Amino acid sequence: MRPTAKFSISFGLVTIPVAAYNATDTAASVGFVRIHTEDGGRVRNQPVCSLEGTEVAADEIGRGYRTEDEAIVPLSDADLDALPLPTARTLTILAFVAGGDIDPLQIGKGYYLGADGPAAAKPYALLRDAMERHRRVGLGKIALHGRETLAMIRPVQDMLVMQVLLWPHQIRPMTGVLPDREVKVAANEVRAAETLMDSFGELSEEDVHDHYREALEEIVAAKLAHREPEFEAGEEAPAGQVMDLMAALQDSVRAAKRARGELDEETAEKAGAGGTRTSGRTTTRTAKKAPTKAAKETAGATTRTAAKAAAKAAKKPTAKATAGASKSGSTDGKKAAAKRGGTTKTAGAARKSAAAERTAGRGRKAG
User: Fold this and answer.
1) What are phi and psi for residue 134, nearest 5 degrees?
2) Which helix H or strand E contains 196, and what residues bound it?
């Protein structure tokens, strides 16, 4: 990369020789040429002398200054070099200010500044590190391409970058641009707009890609190959007048989340939370119903038992009959108890015998 200019930075009594390199490449942007639509021939701008009406060669073209009364005064390179400007070969820093104090409308073309020679390396690094630590940018004047201009120097990574600035009088006033009547914006609309701003997320490499140039190159390639251009299907931008500002902001937030896949996750989470709450309510209602049903069944059983007991009590003999029959009942009870004891022993022996037969049967099968 060749330098476009060489000069020195004047930092107090410190002089730093630098070389300026173009930081931007305008050739990479989309450009068109003028053609004759009848036959496709190029239409060129030919430099023609207004007095002679003939084409002028490039080495015969010089500079001239036009006065207010339309007079043209020729100026040579020697005339411009003779200007008593300290900025002709030196960028004199006038002040150090915060970068935010520079109006972005003034910022123009950028240049990389490299140290011009080994002796310039240390003061170059000194100025770069001091501005970076102090968080300031340098403002000065420099004569470039035959004219004096404002310039801003700022540290970028490991180098210094110079931005050409427009003069304040070159910035047009805003008269006639602002709305004719005062517009009032509600606080909830501002909050909705801030939410929309947050939903945009970080800037990606895809966002700063030149898709227009790629599409244009595809059209050119298709015309050369005598085919139809092929483009990927994309979403069309919404068109039409916005009637409901809040609705448009909310729809924009949802669209931004949907584009990043966040809306589907949020919907799934809400659905999951809703299902849990529903399940909890169902379980609670079931739990409440279960004890009530059990209590009713218990109460019913208690009522039936009490009715049976009352019926038995109605059938029992009187106290005298009960006392007279107590001895007989006692004897009969003893006999019944003995009989039940025998039955119990017999049932136990039968169970043991059956268990032994099953064990023997398993042993024979195993054998």
Assistant:
1) -85, -10
2) helix 187-199
Give the model's pLDDT for residue 166: 93
Going by C-beta distance under 8 Å and a sequence separation of 6 or more, which residues neighbour residue 11? 93, 123, 127, 138
pLDDT digits (tens, 9 = 90+) for 66-90: 998 889 999 888 887 777 766 678 8
Look up residue 292 and give its two tokens: 């009530």
348: exposed, middle or buried (C-beta count within 10 Å: 0-12, 13-18, 19+)? Answer: exposed
Residue found under tokens 């119903």: 289
Instruction: Name every residue whose Cβ is closer than 8 Å to that of residue 315 and which is 6 or more positions away in sequence.
Output: none
What pLDDT score was predicted for residue 292? 45
The answer to whether the beta carbons of residues 99 and 137 sit under 8 Å apart is yes
pLDDT for residue 232: 79
Give yes or no for a contact between 136 and 96, defined as CB atoms under 8 angstroms apart. Answer: yes
Phi, psi (rounded to 5 degrees) for 23: -90, -15
Bridge partners of 140, per DSSP, are 93, 151
Rg (CA), the chain: 50
Q: What is the pTM of this model?
A: 0.56
Beta strands in the chain (DSSP E): 5-11, 14-22, 63-66, 72-75, 90-97, 107-115, 137-144, 147-156, 159-165
Q: Is 202 helix (H, G, I), strand (E, B) or coil?
A: coil
SS3 of residue 135 by DSSP:
coil
- Close Cβ partners of 155 (under 8 Å, ≥ 6 residues apart): 128, 129, 131, 132, 161
Q: The dihedral of CA 131, 133, 134, 135: what is its sign?
A: positive
**What's the rounded Cα separation, in Å, for the pair 152 and 157?**
16
Buried b (16+ CB within 10 A) or exposed e, 264-301: eeeeeeeeeeeeeeeeeeeeeeeeeeeeeeeeeeeeee
Beta bridge partners of 95: 139
Low-confidence ranges of the chain (pLDDT < 70): 28, 85-87, 146, 234-243, 263-367
Nearest-angstrom CA–CA distance, 361 and 367: 10
187-199 vs 245-260: helix crossing angle, rounded to 10: 20
Looking at residue 318, its pLDDT comes to 41
